[in-house]
Amino acid sequence: MSIISDKINSTQARRRLVDGNQRFVNGTTFHHRFHAHGCAKDVKEQSPFAVVLGCSDSRVPIETIFDQSFGDLFIIRIAGNIVAPSQMGSIEFAISKFKTALIVVLGHSNCGAINATIDECINKTNLSDGLYSITNRIKPSILPLLKLNLTNNELVDKAVEVNIINSVKQLQSQSPIIKEAIKNNKLEVIAANYSLKSGAVDFLT
C-alpha cells in the first residue's frame, strides 16, 4: 500500500521513478496488484511526489511502469504527450496545490500520434479537426527531420525524442508558474522515453 509521500526534492523524486521502473523491468514490483478498496480507502489526501505528462497509449500504464500506487503520481495523459492549454493548466494546478518538485514528460517508442503526424506531413492525410489539433502541435518536431536521410524507423524514433524534448521546453518557457518554480530551484522538468520492447524508461535529460 502506498503511503502519502512527504515533500521530496526533484532528485529524490527522480530516484523513486528510476528505482520503480527497474523493479518493473526486473519483475520485482511492489504494486503488481491493486486492491482498489484496500489501498484507496487510506489515501484521504493526495500528495503526489511527481507530475507525469504522458501519452494516452494503452500500452503505457504509467503507475505500472514506474511501480507506483494510489496517490503517488499526478498524471496527465494525451496522445503524443503534447502541451496544450488544458494540459498546462493541469500541471500548473499540481505544482501550485501540491508543491510537487518534478515534472516528467514521458513519451514512448512507436508512438501512434507521431506516426499519424508523419503520415499527415508526407501523404497530406485528411484528419478530423480533433486529430489535427494534436498533430499540429507535433509537426514542429517532425518537419525538420523530413529533410534528413532517415529510414522510417529512424524517423519515428528521432521524432519521438524531439517531440518529448520540445514538450519539456514548452513547459519550461510558456508557464509563469513553472518558470518561477524553476527559478527558485523548487522544480525540475525532465524528459523520458519508454521502450515498449524492453519496458525500460530512458531519462533523456
From TrEMBL:
Pfam families, sorted: Pro_CA
CDD domains noted in UniProt: beta_CA_cladeC (cd03378)
Binding site for Zn(2+): C55, D57, H108, C111
Record carries keyword Zinc: yes
Required cofactor names: Zn(2+)
Protein's UniProt keywords contain GTP-binding: no
SMART domains: Pro_CA
Cofactor binding comment, as recorded: Binds 1 zinc ion per subunit.
Similarity remark: Belongs to the beta-class carbonic anhydrase family.
Protein name: Carbonic anhydrase
